[in-house]
């Protein structure tokens, strides 16, 4: 049993305003695996006040960039040294399969190292060369911290979401209040322990689990200068409205309903093997999951059969079992949401190829759903348009390449996507026509040096690398 009775505010473990402990349930069998206090509005006030005081005092923002880099490098080393514990905690509280949480640890290192490299090469202060005929003055352009950052992250990939925000925000000299989901109280409590050991000055970082109402209180706080949010599009719209009213800086990484296009010349075996990871990672609870599979009419039946065979071969069960590929949903509510979408797909007239709303045999005591594949899906159906956030795939037929591009772009979202072809040059030409923030060709992994984010309802702004670091800075021009 893991218990957190205090909150991490401004670099210190303090007594909460409400000492009541929230039970944290295992997605696998719904047993209580831990308890943790939750932040209330008064705790958010304390965290924001500490962040504001540290920012105005300049204890971190005026620290030279090289020293900030050294501190965050120390934090990253601590995280790397505790990778196994982090993976265990995420599987325990989130139900993410062991293979996924362990495979994600090197990715966290690459993510952090890309930010650290960007910070080392960043133009923190540059003198512009005047254009001829040059005036006697010259301009010095600085990149300075925005201020107090409210970073709000979801439950599905807590360490990745947290580090993608706090590392660049801190590298830029900001003070940060990280609001995490109640479901992640255990892993994020451990994150706070690592930050506590990293040597950050007082007031610079807080890590607080809290519900949605308290989260809205934080992002509405008049002393918050920037909101960095990852989560649902619905919540993103609400946050954007708050930011617009208060003229706060805002970056939003939101939902997706991404398509992977299997071109007629693709290696079907390779493409379907890629679906395993590109479409069903993290139990299907991933914003970048490519859950719309676009197949050419000429090879449609072949692809449907191959996808169904793949899905049926995947072991569903205890996330701690190394043989498990798909674990449970995060909560009973999410379990029922996914099952309702499966029922909806049947009602809409899609053909149920495998799976369905029934619970997996022997796993009725947990938050499990049966991985499901629908065929004969029209892109106008809700199961093709709405983010289900579970292991549910739809296979949609297209007539020709233009039709495939049209269907892929026929979505309110634009976060991710994929192209499969034996001709890489041609695949690139198709990828350029897809209106999404990232497109993978033949299953390539998304890198961390290039910007990541979405078009349309999938968000505003970008994360990762130099572009992501820059979103946590303001420009200042000094004329000399």
Number of helices: 15
Quaternary structure state of the chains depicted: single chain
Radius of gyration: 23 Å
- In order across it, which strands form the biggest sheet? 15-16-17-14-13-18-19
What is the SS-derived class? alpha/beta
State mean pLDDT (0 to 100 scale). Answer: 97
Coarse shape: globular
Explain this structure to me?
The structure is a single chain. This protein is of the alpha/beta class. The chain contains 15 helices and 21 strands. The chain has helices at residues 41-57, 65-81, 83-94, 98-121, 158-171, 185-196, 212-220, 233-246, 268-278, 300-313, 332-348, 382-385, 401-409, 424-431, 465-470, and strands at residues 2-4, 7-9, 12-14, 21-25, 32-37, 125-128, 139-145, 148-152, 175-180, 205-209, 226-230, 249-253, 259-262, 292-296, 351-356, 370-375, 392-398, 417-420, 440-441, 459-460, 473-479. The strands form five sheets. Strands 15-16-17-14-13-18-19 form a seven-stranded mixed beta sheet, sandwiched between helices. A six-stranded mixed beta sheet has the order 10-9-8-11-12-20, with helices on both faces. The protein has a three-stranded mixed beta sheet with strand order 1-5-4, covered by helices on one side. Helix 3 (83-94) crosses helix 4 (98-121), helix 3 packs antiparallel against helix 6 and helix 9 (268-278) packs across helix 10. The mean pLDDT is 97.
